[in-house]
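Annotated sample (chain length 399).
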Amino acid sequence: MAGSILESLTSLMGPQVLGPVASQLGESTDTVQRGLQSGSAALLAGIAAKASQSGFLGQIFSLITNPANGAGALSGITSNLGSLASGAASSPIADLGSRLLSSVFGPNLSTITDSIGRSVGLSGNKAGSLLSMAAPLVLGVLGQQVREKGLSVGDLGNTLKAEVPNLQNFLPAGFRSLLGGASNLVAGAPAVVAKATNRWLWPVIVLAALVLGALWFFNRAKAPVGEAVQTATTAATNAGASAVSALGDFFKSKLPNGVELNIPRFGIESKLISFLGDSSKPVDTTTWFNFDRLLFDTGKATLQPSSQEQLGNIAAILKAYPNVHVKLGGYTDNTGDAAANMSLSAARAKNVMDALVTAGIDPSRLESEGYGDQHSVADNSTEEGRAQNRRIALRVTQK
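Output written by the structure step:
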């Protein structure tokens, strides 16, 4: 596929694609094109900005390689873009697009949508519609890139980072700060290059960003591995996308109170629901369920916004089973200072518990504890094993 990723996306936005969308929104095709370009650029830059965060890129790669985004998906997306604008019934690829937006922008989604709207002269609702259409388009083109070039997770990250300079003129004003100050967006460059005479600055800006990125990477590499407490499945994505894809396809699961969740077939939510609904499985002290989509800031107990989806699902399950009590455990590998790892694992487990309380769960139903490098589930002599040992888990203490 020749040219940049954004050029590939723009090449799909012909009159036959833009016309129905423009008609649905009551806008010109030029405005619709600029809105789709801005939304697509924002998504690509958002992924690139977070590409170095542990597990994040693996989650994105699992969306890109989802069977619903297969070889024929892109033509289907472009031929039915107008139906997305009209708010027609959801589809698997539209659901993937929604998950992409949530993963990349988290709680900043509405702010970024409004900024895109202002940059192209659209209301927030119309900008939101275009961003919802841009997401499956981006997934389709990235899926094509991955298939045609045989890209791995790491290859994809490098490709997207190299793409950032091509995106700058299409990003809404202040995009870097809107994204939450993500450190990997090239130099936080302005959305529009105001004067042609300043274009010589770009090589300097890019070079400075690469130097700063290298310093950040090596400093991060020196930190105790125990800092990067993750869940077993999410952490394993550093070695490839297979661990994340092992979660299986997402499906609709209805809880006893009628609430319907969209959850992965082999994720913690599905396993927990099955356990709670099976009267033949008693509560014990050995049955733990590992979270698979939680992420923390490196070296901190702060949950990243992308964790909210799974936390919300667990809270919904607990609300549907009001008699259930649970314990949350935090774990690390055996690298670094043992006392520091114990403290960090405890703080992270407590923050997960606090997040569930914030979501409406009575604190009397919850408890948390940090176990540090105790209770390993894999070999600490390998990176893959250490990644599996860094986790947050849940145990049912009362049904």
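Annotation: Residues 124-149 form the longest helix (26 residues).
Annotation: Residues 250 and 263 are 5 Å apart (CA to CA).
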